[in-house]
Amino acid sequence: MNKKKSPLALAMFKSKHQPTALSHERPFERIPIAKLYEQYERIQLESGKSEKAARETRFCVALLQEVTGATYLDEIDYECALNFKRALSVYPKNRKRIPELANTEGFEAIYLGFELGKETLSTARCLKIIQGNSSFMEFGVKMSQVNQNVFSKLMTKREVVSNRRHSFDDDHLNLIYNMDEYLEHRYLHPYYYWVPLMLRFTGTRLNEVCGLFATDIVHIDSIPCIVINEGMEGQRIKNNNSVRLIPIHSELIRLGFMDFVESRCGGRLFPELPLVNGYYSHNASKWFARRRSQLGLGKGLDCYSFRHRFITELRENDTSFPTIMSIAGHVTSTEEKRLGDWYKSPTHQAYSHSLHPSVTQLHTAQASTKAPLSTQ
After folding, report:
1. pLDDT at 345 over 60
2. Tens-digit pLDDT profile for residues 46-98
3. How many CB atoms lie under 10 A from the CB of residue 115?
4. Confidence at 19, pLDDT banded by 50, 70, 90
5. Less Cβ around it within 10 Å: N or C end of the chain?
6. pLDDT tens digits for 176-196?
7. Would you say 267 and 214 are in contact if contact means Cβ atoms under 8 Å apart?
8. Which residues contact 84 (CB under 8 A, 6 or more apart)?
9. pTM for this structure?
10. Mean per-residue pLDDT for 212-219?
11. Rounded-to-integer distance, Cα 130 and Cα 125, Å
C-alpha cells in the first residue's frame, strides 16, 4: 500500500538539499571560499543569527581572502593562519574610510597605512576577525573542504586584556549626569535621558533597554520589575542566560520612570529608535559615542561601562554568582562552568527556579549607590 507523502517530504525529495546517505554520497567537490560562505551564511541566518552578525562574519572572511589571496580553504595552512594574524595587527583601521587607502588592499594597504602613520586594528578587533574565520573554517571541516580548523585557539582573550572595556568611575558618572540637558531636562528624545539612567541602575545591555515595551514593566508581589526577554517583535537577547527579571531601582522610581512607562500606553518605551540590522540599539550607540567624545571620555569607555560598573559593585558586595546572573544575566567563564554544571544537574532541573525579585532587589539597590546623581 502506497503512503501519501507530505508536501514537505515531496519538496525535500525534489530539492538539491535532500539528505543523502554516505553510501550514496556525490563525488567530492572543491568549493571556492565565496560559494562556500554563501552556504554558511544561509545556514547561520536560518538558525536565527542576526543580519548584523552575518555581515560581521562576511567581513572577516573577505579580509582573509584579501590578505592571503586564497581561493579555497585548503590553501590556508597553519603557517598561513599565523601570518594572517600577524598581518591583522598592522592592518589599518577603517581602511575604506581613509581616502588615501580606499583603493588599496592587502599588504599594499598595510605598507601605505604604515607610511602614513594610520591607526591599526585593535587587539580586540583582531580577535573577533580570527574568531569569525575560525567559525567559518569549522564549517569548512564539516563540509569536507579541510581536515582541520587552523584558526582554532590561534588567538585568545588573554591577548586582549590591555584593550578591554573599562568601568565608569565616580568622576565619569558625574560628568555624564551633570550635563545641562540632564539638569534642565532638555533633550531631543526621551532615550537621551532614560537610557543612561537605566543602564546605570539595572546593569542591562544597551539593546535590551532600547527594545523594551511598556508591557515589559511588571509588578511581582508589588515589586516593580523589568522583564528582559525576546517576546516582542524585534527584541533580541544575547543568550539563554540573558532572560531575567530585574527589580527597578528606587532612584529610577524617584526620577519618574514609572510615570514615563505609563505614558507609553503599552507600546515601546523608545519608539524613536528604529530597528537597524536587527538591533534597536544602533542609533543610541552612535548618539552615546558622540556624547562620550563631547565629554572627553577616553578609549574603552562606552555604554557597556555602565554594566561593567554595576557588575563590579555586585561583586564588591559579595553577591553570589547565581544572584549576579539573575540580575545581570552574566557570569565569568569559571563561574559559568560551575553554574552550567549545576543547571544541567537533575536536582536543579527538578527543584530550582529563578530567584524571586524580593531576593535580588536588595542587591540591585546596593550595587548602584556609590555615585549619587544630581538629577532632579
Report:
1. no
2. 888 888 888 999 999 999 999 999 999 999 999 999 999 999 999 999 999 99
3. 9
4. low
5. N
6. 988 887 888 888 899 999 999
7. yes
8. 64, 67, 68, 76, 133
9. 0.62
10. 93
11. 9
Residue appearing with cell numbers 588599496: 104
**Which residues on neighbouring strands pair with residue 220, listed in sequence order?**
223
Neighbour tally for 187: CB within 10 Å: 13
Domains of the chain, with CATH numbers? 29-159 (no CATH), 170-361 (1.10.443)
Burial status of residue 191 (CB atoms within 10 A of its CB: 0-12, 13-18, 19 or more): buried
Q: Is the dihedral of CA 32, 35, 41, 47 positive or negative?
A: negative
